[in-house]
Design goal:
alpha/beta; Rossmann fold; six-stranded mixed sheet; three-stranded antiparallel sheet; 4 helices; 9 strands; 24% helix; globular; binds guanosine-5'-monophosphate; binds magnesium ion; transferase; hypoxanthine phosphoribosyltransferase activity; magnesium; purine salvage; EC 2.4.2.8
Length: 179
């Protein structure tokens, strides 16, 4: 285990089981719809890569980068598009792939934007969900694990751009934040 990690919240094996389950559900639901999966950079990149390999259907992917958090752990409440899609979403069945739904601000803005661009449908799949932290009324359409209000890293999730490469979801030791 990485020396900066206090505890593993969700193991590599637990993640794999859940991703397979979610991929299976999405494949069923979108079988003849050629969905466009939108990875919200950078946090969702690992989840996206694993998820699409569990979806044995015709589908496409694209990437979008938005900023809502700085380098710290608190939401700024602002959502800015840093990198937009290459693909038009008009009349497409869109699945937004996120690492974690926390305040819900990022996803509610994104969903709003994609609807405005006349997507045929917009649904959200998130690996992690912190329902206690919600500031806007939004529920993920597909969700892996509900977690308590703790800041987590790994499997794409960062603290100051580090720890994304950990294969599990973990909690950092308090002294790491003091550095
Ligand atoms: P929101 O508050 O808008 O729902 O979440 C926006 C983004 O904040 C998430 O996509 C994620 O990148 C980041 N975030 C929220 N909670 C956590 C967390 O516990 N750990 C990490 N590393 N990022 C988080
Ligand atoms: Mg994210
Ligand atoms: Mg981050």
């Amino acid at each position: 285990m990485n020396g900066d990690i206090e505890k593993i919240m969700i193991s590599e094996e637990q993640i794999a089981v859940k991703v397979k389950e979610l991929g299976g559900i999405l494949a069923e639901e979108y079988r003849d719809k050629n969905p466009l999966l939108i990875c919200v950079l950078k946090g969702a990149i690992i989840f996206m890569a694993d998820l699409i390999r569990q979806m044995d259907i015709r589908c496409e992917m694209d990437f979008m980068a938005v900023s809502s958090y700085g380098s710290g752990t608190e939401s700024s409440g602002m959502v800015r598009i840093l990198k937009d899609l290459d693909t038009s979403v008009q009349d497409r069945h869109v699945i937004v792939v996120e690492d974690i739904m926390d305040s819900g601000l990022t996803l509610s803005r994104l969903v709003e934007l994609l609807r405005h661009r006349e997507a045929a449908s917009v649904k959200v799949v998130t690996l992690l969900n912190k329902p206690d932290r919600r500031k806007v009324e939004i529920t993920p359409d597909y969700s892996g694990y509900d977690i308590p209000d703790e800041f987590v890293v790994g499997y794409g999730l960062d603290y100051a751009e580090n720890y994304r490469n950990l294969p599990y979801i973990g909690v950092l030791k308090p002294e790491v934040y003091a550095k």
